[in-house]
Amino acid sequence: MAQLVVGLLGPVASLVFGILILMFPKILNYLIGIYLIVVGAIGVLDHLI
Predict the structure, then answer these.
(1) Residue 48: its pLDDT value, please?
(2) DSSP H helices in the chain
Protein backbone atom coordinates (compact mmCIF):
# COMPACT_ATOMS: atom_id res chain seq x y z
CA MET A 1 0.00 0.00 0.00
CA ALA A 2 2.83 2.41 0.86
CA GLN A 3 4.44 1.82 -2.54
CA LEU A 4 1.15 2.69 -4.26
CA VAL A 5 0.92 5.98 -2.38
CA VAL A 6 4.56 6.85 -3.06
CA GLY A 7 4.13 5.79 -6.69
CA LEU A 8 1.18 8.14 -7.12
CA LEU A 9 2.76 11.00 -5.16
CA GLY A 10 5.15 12.09 -7.91
CA PRO A 11 2.72 12.35 -10.81
CA VAL A 12 -0.07 13.91 -8.74
CA ALA A 13 2.29 16.43 -7.13
CA SER A 14 3.71 17.29 -10.54
CA LEU A 15 0.25 18.02 -11.93
CA VAL A 16 -0.79 20.12 -8.95
CA PHE A 17 2.49 22.04 -8.79
CA GLY A 18 2.47 22.58 -12.56
CA ILE A 19 -0.98 24.13 -12.42
CA LEU A 20 -0.05 26.28 -9.42
CA ILE A 21 3.16 27.46 -11.10
CA LEU A 22 1.20 28.52 -14.16
CA MET A 23 -1.26 30.41 -11.98
CA PHE A 24 1.23 31.87 -9.48
CA PRO A 25 4.81 31.83 -10.89
CA LYS A 26 6.27 33.60 -7.84
CA ILE A 27 5.58 30.65 -5.51
CA LEU A 28 7.82 28.30 -7.52
CA ASN A 29 10.59 28.27 -4.90
CA TYR A 30 8.19 27.42 -2.09
CA LEU A 31 6.55 24.63 -4.06
CA ILE A 32 9.88 23.06 -4.97
CA GLY A 33 11.05 23.27 -1.36
CA ILE A 34 7.88 21.70 -0.01
CA TYR A 35 7.97 18.96 -2.65
CA LEU A 36 11.58 18.08 -1.86
CA ILE A 37 10.92 17.99 1.89
CA VAL A 38 7.85 15.76 1.49
CA VAL A 39 9.53 13.35 -0.94
CA GLY A 40 12.67 13.21 1.21
CA ALA A 41 10.69 12.56 4.40
CA ILE A 42 8.68 9.80 2.74
CA GLY A 43 11.87 8.22 1.42
CA VAL A 44 13.53 8.26 4.85
CA LEU A 45 10.44 6.96 6.65
CA ASP A 46 10.02 4.21 4.04
CA HIS A 47 13.52 2.92 4.83
CA LEU A 48 13.00 3.14 8.60
CA ILE A 49 9.76 1.17 8.61
Answers:
(1) 80
(2) 2-23, 28-48
